Amino acid sequence: MTTSLDSFKSAKTLEVGGKSYTYYSLVEAEKNGLAGVSALPFSMKVLLENLLRFEDGRSVTAEDVKSVAEWLVNRGKAEREIAYRPARVLMQDFTGVPAVVDLAAMRDAMKALGGDPEKINPLIPVDLVIDHSFVVDFYGNATALQRNVEREYEQNQERYRFLRWGQNAFENFRVVPPGTGICHQVNLEYLAQTVWTKTEDGVTYAYPDTLVGTDSHTTMINGLGVLGWGVGGIEAEAAMLGQPISMLIPEVIGFKLIGKAAPGITATDVVLTVTQMLRKKGVVGKFVEFFGPGLATMSLADRATIANMAPEYGATCGFFPVDDETLAYLTTSARATDRIALVEAYSKAQGMFRTDATPDPVFTDTLELDLSTVEPSLAGPKRPQDRVVLKNVKAGFAASLEGEFKKPGEIDKRVPVAGRDFTVGHGDVVIAAITSCTNTSNPSVMIGAGLVARKANALGLKAKPWVKTSLAPGSQVVADYFNNSGLQTDLDALGFNVVGFGCATCIGNSGPLDEPISEAINAADLVAAAVLSGNRNFEGRVNPDVKANYLASPPLVVAYAIAGSMQIDLANDPIATTADGTPVYLKDIWPTKEEIDAVIAQYITRDVFASKYASVFEGDARWQGIEITKGLTYSWQSTSTYVQNPPYFAGMSATPAPVTDIRSARVLGLFLDSITTDHISPAGSIKAASPAGEYLRDHQVRPQDFNQYGTRRGNHEVMMRGTFANIRIKNQMLGGKEGGNTIHYPSGKELPIYTAAMQYKSEGVPLVVFAGKEYGTGSSRDWAAKGTNLLGVRAVIAQSFERIHRSNLVGMGILPLQFKDGDGWQALGLKGDEAVTILGLEAGLKPRQILTAEITRADGSKTSVDLICRIDTLDELDYFKNGGILQYVLRSLVAA
């Protein structure tokens, strides 16, 4: 940690428990030139402290520090770039493997350029949690967990061997082995400290625990008073290597919570309401901070549930300040007592501790929710912000069936299932999954689900036979309190056996449906449904056989498994009948708050957390038994279909080549609004007939061993073939037909996007992509940008971009261009057969410069349109000129 210039004389000493800590005091800075900063939002105070601590006169100047104080005047409306340095980095394995692959490749490149490979090493702590690799292949019985684990290790040996190498080869790099839990919950329960410390040159510094993560739901930790958000793997790698994260000082939207939720209302109901409100408000690229008296009624887990969904409501973060509830959670979750004392003392000394008497901070804007008005809710059938009140779900599905899914007059359609004594129809729930970090961090809803199962069992109710049921707890702590309370037995009886510990259905790892059910659905083109306690329900994400996906609380997931259909009004109609024909209503099996609280009080204790995290990095015998090679650089295996040396640094010189204009580019795709990174990035299962499937077959991989795209993120050959290959993506060059195809020009042939891109590459033709609003919404997936780069796309031209994806495009050397208000490819009448030339890149390109695209139509006529260059900062411009952020970092380290 470089000693700060400390222009505002803020350095002070804090004595806690007999230990001395140096910290940069906001109170002192306010006295010495930063007037009024005590009124800043708590999240902005974290940014201010960061700048005070890293003021070096170069990357952080006194003017940068002053600009945060000036925020009180401009409320974030003035565009000011700052350099932000998080304390640590968090990764999950889907996004972490390619990051470690890139670090390994950078060591090779460093060696080739005559530099020291050991310079390629994380400079800040990095934790990678393996939580995305298991698939729900087996479910509904006592052997499901064991068989899924065996299958996971069988399919992921190469990846796990590589990560074990990385764990030994890199400093400041820890790996949490498979089967521990979801990275965000492990972060919440163990890794996060709220206040971080570091000893350097005999001085121990205390400062806010901050992080960036390679998963957009890193924001869940905001519930613990820790500022963190998702970035692309590319940005995370740069942060690991000592590069600051360039960001514009954000607007901060204050979300005031008042009142208290009514009995029976879950944290999921609240978060879906919050998500809908903030999406309507428009908070993309902004901080959201929660305040108001309603916080006093909200558990830490409830706060984490709301913070987790920040990507769904579009914000950079959803921040909750430190208060007494934070300290209580740190105590229950077995954090060290001296650390808890430091958190309290530091937060109070900095004016970062919230009490009921704390004045409301100054915000850019505010909105308010009375918690007492929240109703039981789901979200669906396609987006997390599309909240539907429980009593309206039946009617809402019927409307979607005719509207979104174009099935008029088919509401009662049912078809037989071969070899089974039941039929399936539109709206049947074929997946009911308690899954994902959003809710499995929250004991109130998890125990609620167990109590619903207990009450249902007492009445003799069962899940419908066409429902694939699964329970993927967020951590082993959940399994402990389920087992000790006996609730796991009740869940097992309804088919909610534990299938694994990690993120599953929410990311498409739902596994296949039973074959006869899958065949019936596809033969009759049924709109089958999934109900999951996750945070994502985008098209094509959960399961290829399921078109309608609904987010719901864990207790409602259990209830819908029993009901078996979205065409039942759970709020008013019976969800089932007992053996003697007595109707059972949802209220008959819904637990009271008192019942839930009693289980929490008895079974969720400090000792449980302490025991479960005592050996968190050791792993089981399978993990410890993986053989690894040692060495500074990795021994790449040419036969591996999981891990390959990527081509980003091939032929790289010590100095970058000049940026060139884009001339006569062809259009790879025309897309409408809300194209997500799930549409762009390879995800889910790999189809045998796809370019990726053909590649694997050519490498002697059997279709049953294809695994999924997420597990093969370390192999660029697989991933580039799966880019834009989502089964639900609609390229308007083909009239909106689903599937990852395009039309090659001038031949006019319809081809898979990968195949067309490779043909264009062989012809020396650059490519562009056109899109509508909110392009790249979704998870922080670096492969949505990496794959786009490898396909030969030079520029993406959209009406607006999601924050992380825009940054990732720049980080991969791709130019993001934004239409001015009112413009768009549809308004221009584009068909996709045009040639596009963009000039001005060679002549002193500047951030947010206006560039002109000249579009030549098939008949030779030309149209010009002005575009905003969405390279937003000078640092991003440096990355772009170098061909990407990794190339920039590598050249900087070679020159150092």
TrEMBL record:
Assembly and interaction partners: Monomer.
Required cofactor(s): [4Fe-4S] cluster
PROSITE patterns given in the database record: ACONITASE_1, ACONITASE_2
Transmembrane keyword on record: no
Native species: Prosthecodimorpha hirschii
Domain Aconitase/3-isopropylmalate dehydratase large subunit alpha/beta/alpha span(s) in chain numbering: 78-564
InterPro entries in the record: AcnA_IRP_Swivel, Acnase/IPM_dHydase_lsu_aba_1/3, Acoase/IPM_deHydtase_lsu_aba, Aconitase/3IPM_dehydase_swvl, Aconitase/IRP2, Aconitase_4Fe-4S_BS, Aconitase_4Fe-4S_dom, AconitaseA/IPMdHydase_ssu_swvl
Pathway: Carbohydrate metabolism; tricarboxylic acid cycle; isocitrate from oxaloacetate: step 2/2; Organic acid metabolism; propanoate degradation
Family listed: Belongs to the aconitase/IPM isomerase family.
Source lineage: Bacteria, Pseudomonadati, Pseudomonadota, Alphaproteobacteria, Hyphomicrobiales
Catalytic activity reported: citrate = D-threo-isocitrate; (2S,3R)-3-hydroxybutane-1,2,3-tricarboxylate = 2-methyl-cis-aconitate + H2O
Gene3D superfamilies: 6.10.190.10, Aconitase, domain 3, Aconitase, domain 4
Domain of life according to the entry: Bacteria
Stated name of the protein: Aconitate hydratase
MF GO annotations: 2-methylisocitrate dehydratase activity; 4 iron, 4 sulfur cluster binding; aconitate hydratase activity; metal ion binding; RNA binding
Enzyme kind, highest EC tier: lyase
EC number of the protein: 4.2.1.3
Role according to the record: Catalyzes the isomerization of citrate to isocitrate via cis-aconitate.
GO aspect biological process, one term: tricarboxylic acid cycle
Domain Aconitase A/isopropylmalate dehydratase small subunit swivel positions: 695-821
Key words of the record: 4Fe-4S, Iron, Iron-sulfur, Lyase, Metal-binding, RNA-binding, Tricarboxylic acid cycle
PANTHER family on file: ACONITASE/IRON-RESPONSIVE ELEMENT FAMILY MEMBER
Keyword Metal-binding set for record: yes
